[in-house]
Amino acid sequence: MQMKKRTLNIVLFLAVLVFSATPITGQEISIKWDDLGSGEKQILAPLQDKWAALSPAKQTRLNNGAKMWNAMSSEQQKTFKQKLQAWKQKNPDEKFKIRNQFAQFQSLPETEKQALRDAYEDFKYLPLLTSPPPRSH
Q1: Residues 35-62 pLDDT 10s
Q2: Of 1, 66, 98, 101, whose CA is between 20 and 30 Å from 16?
């Protein structure tokens, strides 16, 4: 049960990162390095020399990711690092399965997605059973 919870948390967080980019409009504009905020520049510094060669869509995703990182508390950053480490340790088949499950989730109507989110929230707060419940005869 713990593994399913961890996997779902990773998938949900990755979903936020993947879909945090602005929608593609056909006229994507590059972000100039000098237009980035100081916090974003600090995080993206290893990419400074390659920045201009990145596609506008990738620049946008990276910039949005850096902004999200800066908005996180240190505890949230720590949790994210742990989840990222867990993701890196997954084998390609596990990653493929998770990506497929995410794609299936994304294809659901919004009402079904919300129902799943609600059910997951309810599930998180269920007490853990250490033994099966007693049977009534």
Answers
A1: 999 999 998 999 999 999 999 999 999 9
A2: 1
Residue 29's φ and ψ, nearest 5 degrees, are -115, 135
C-alpha triplet 131, 135, 137: angle, nearest 5°: 160
Which residue in the block uniquely carries the two structure tokens 């999200």?
Answer: 68
Token pair of 26, please?
């056909």
Q: Is the CB of residue 90 less than 8 Å from the CB of residue 101?
A: no
Please report, as a single letter, which amino acid is at residue 4: K
* Burial of 40 from C-beta contacts in 10 A (0-12 / 13-18 / 19+): buried
Structure tokens at 15: 């979903």
CA distances from 132 to 1, 79, 124, 137 (A): 15, 32, 19, 15
CA-nearest of 102, 128, 121 to 7 is 102
User: What is d(CA 91, CA 99) in angstroms, rounded to the nearest whole number?
Assistant: 12
C-alpha distances out from residue 38 to 41, 45, 50, 133, Å:
5, 10, 18, 56
